[in-house]
Amino acid sequence: MASSKIPYYPLKNKQSLDVLLDAIGDARFVLLGEASHGTSEYYTWRTTISRRLITEKNFNFISVEGDWPDCYLVNRFVKGYPEAGNSVRDVLKNFTRWPTWMWGNWEVAALVEWLREHNQNEAPEHKAGFYGLDVYSLWDSLEQIVKYLEHNDGTTVEAAKRAFRCFEPFGDDPQAYAEAIAFVDKGCENEVLEMLQKISANAPQFSGDREANFGAEQNALVAVNAEKYYRAMIRGGGSSWNVRDRHMMETLNRLMDFHGPESKAIIWEHNTHIGDARATDMARSGMVNIGQLVREEHGSENAFLVGFGSYWGTVMAGRQWGATMQKMEVPRAKPNSWEARLHEAGPGDKLLLTEELRDLPELQKPVGHRAIGVVYNPEFEAFGNYVPSRITERYNAFLFIDETEAVHPLHNYRDAHQPPELYPWGT
């Protein structure tokens, strides 16, 4: 271990993760964060950790902060289902909702190709999956349900079509739907609930394969919770956040049940979702997140939360929601922040186990911890991008990359003969 005031392990290659794998032990849920949705190293290190968890500890699937329909297409591809696409680009091009770079990038392509190759040698029940936990895909999920039921269950499809027709006047615009129902009781809640009930009751008799039937039922759940989310969104406050994270937790539990009593899950989400909300100022606003919920519902011994952060570098983001993506400079971390302290603790990248930090008096109170979203304005980050956090309570471990680079969007490299070099430490 390096000698410094803050104890850490040098992070140089995949063997550096041995101490992390030992600390994870028998935990069934490993949550891997990120301090932004546009940093290459966060993706590549999470991929390296996930590969070791799948091959060495028999984890069953990776679940991510992405939409169910798009991620489910990736799942079918990596498991080798018929007509699931011929290349990784075939499936990743389906990530068309902004921010497209979040999953349509070379870093994710490398993970997807590895999963497909790994699964070729596995029995069907042991193939590692890839799923989306998020709640945004209301219209896409409805379209997928109608299309699926038309081919697999004619008796249930009419309930799905009624739900679809209810949302049609809003033209795929959740903001328009939220505004329309803000001051009235009548929305599409009854329609999506009826659809979910019918699909749940009839799913065992659907003519599709077991996983496709599960996917249809999950799309119905997405529609129910998305309607609830957009209804809460217009009211403001933390209610829509809680609807979203509780949906992600419900989806995670469903996936665990689907994969059996001994199943193990890897979760990829932003630090703000996977770092226990009770160790931040989110708790004062009544907000919860999936890191907190996994610990509460499954026990802290079964949950291992890994945060990520960096001191400076570049990131892919937009200046406002829906804006063209840009490669932006990430300034040096604010003095006395968590990231600045780790930069000053010694040279190079670092792996920390938070139980080894509990005796440090300066970490017994909240410290500023940087969080960058898909919308980012570097010149203003000191005023709103630092979350007060009790680090030792928020995470079980932390990976610190001193200097990072922006993620590599797939469409920026269409004409390249080779993808960018992503793993300087080797794959």
From TrEMBL:
InterPro entries: Emycin_Estase (IPR007815), Hydrolase/PRTase-associated (IPR052036), UCP036794_erythomycin (IPR014622). The keyword Methyltransferase applies. Keywords: Methyltransferase, Transferase. GO terms for molecular function: methyltransferase activity. Pfam families: Erythro_esteras. Gene3D superfamilies: EreA-like (biosynthetic domain), EreA-like, domain 2. GO terms for biological process: methylation; response to antibiotic. The keyword Transferase applies. PANTHER family: ESTERASE, PUTATIVE (AFU_ORTHOLOGUE AFUA_1G05850)-RELATED. This is Protein-L-isoaspartate O-methyltransferase. It comes from Adhaeribacter arboris. The lineage of its organism: Bacteria, Pseudomonadati, Bacteroidota, Cytophagia, Cytophagales.
